[in-house]
């Protein structure tokens, strides 16, 4: 198991006031935990469209944490000063953004403008969680930040790809036109505890199916590849990037590429499940291969992912088992 020493807790020079929008989501809630651990003050905003209150329930009562339930499609008025406005709000998995297509377009367009305006008003820095989906079905492999992407502007994933491409364009327009400091990351497939078990992403699907003894649904022949990043590696990259003055975009992902079938087999081994694999047709516009080129993040942030797939999946499976236990306990009581 490879674990190098570059996951440092970098203490803040002074506590910062940080607005995290999308804070009750999977990535947002882990980021909030880390920012609070580093001594900052966090105002968490979420409309709970795909996020879950349980993800931040452990923070209720924390002296430096406040939660506001709000839909960022509407402007947000805040009295206090802010150092950072961090925009992680958006449905993020294909079943979710396809279920909420208009909301996805709106949060990435109107929501992004409201947060960019708020950052300007507060003289704060703006952070955007973009996605590897801006590369679409990429024409280069692995993907460097210079790749403009191969997206279908009106295809079944367009509400998300084009929403994020618009959000990047808006952030760069405010940066170039108003001099607003921005940081844009492009997140590649990330997994870990607190993912919604029904979000339709491969890791959650496979773990849920393996633990339930159901067949693991593999789309296509399973030879298409994914590169999976564990959430603590992503959060470490984000925190490092907050200390570096560069608008990006910067890829954050794990470059180790595995076939979907290999991932399924690893999850079967780690769960000890005897579930078979069941093969289904590949969805339209599903990317065949996606792998980040992380040389920019390595150079700029001195960052590289350190959590191996075995270790990250084992932690995620343990958390899923724990959640399942809680669920069964709640049903019994
Ligand atoms: P998530 O769905 O768990 O979190 C997104 C959060 O945003 C949710 O809590 C949701 O309720 C909230 N939200 C959505 N619309 C909102 C609105 N209008 N107002 C306020 N809150 C709103 O997804 P995630 O996996 O944690 O993703 C977080 C961010 O990272 C997203 O912007 C996503 O596009 C990006 N991203 C994630 C991945 C990944 O692998 N998890 C990959 C690429 C990009």
Structure description:
The chain is of the alpha/beta class. Helix content is 39%, strand content 16%. Bound molecules: nicotinamide-adenine-dinucleotide. Residues 21-22, 24-28, 45-51, 71-73, 88-92, 107, 111, 129, 131, 187, 189-190 line the site of nicotinamide-adenine-dinucleotide (NAD). Belongs to the NAD(P)-dependent epimerase/dehydratase family. UDP-glucuronic acid decarboxylase subfamily. This is UDP-glucuronate decarboxylase.
Layout of strands and helices, then pairs:
Layout: E1 17-21, H1 26-37, E2 41-46, H2 54-57, E3 65-69, E4 84-87, H3 94-99, H4 101-122, E5 125-131, H5 158-178, E6 182-187, E7 190-191, H6 202-212, E8 216-219, E9 225-227, E10 229-230, H7 231-241, E11 250-252, E12 257-259, H8 260-271, E13 277-280, H9 295-301, H10 309-332
Parallel strand pairs: 1-2, 1-4, 2-3, 4-5, 5-6, 6-11, 7-10, 8-13
Antiparallel strand pairs: 9-12
Helix pairs in contact: 1-7, 4-5, 6-8, 6-10, 8-10
Low-confidence stretches: 1-12
Number of strands: 13
Percent in helix: 25-40%
Rounded mean pLDDT is: 92
Order of helices and strands: EHEHEEHHEHEEHEEEHEEHEHH
Task: Estimate what percentage of residues fall within beta strands.
Answer: 15-25%
Question: Could you say which small molecules are bound to this protein?
Answer: nicotinamide-adenine-dinucleotide
Query: Structural class given helices, strands, pairing?
Result: alpha/beta
Shape: globular
> How many angstroms separate the termini?
40 Å
In which order are the strands of the major sheet placed? 3-2-1-4-5-6-11
